[in-house]
Design brief:
Elements (H helix, E strand, L loop, with lengths): L6 H7 L3 H7 L3 H4 L5
Organism: Mycobacterium tuberculosis
Protein name: Exported repetitive protein PirG
């Protein structure tokens, strides 16, 4: 799993609820996307 030598990049890769939210196809993120 040591693909990224940076601890900062490893964190967002984990299944965290806070980081998982923005990664999911939420309506809030979907609106500005097509725009």
């Amino acid at each position: 799993m040591p693909t990224f030598p940076l601890p900062e990049l490893k964190k967002p890769m984990l299944p965290l609820p806070e980081l998982k939210k923005p990664m999911l196809p939420l309506p809030e993120f979907s609106a500005p996307n097509p725009t």
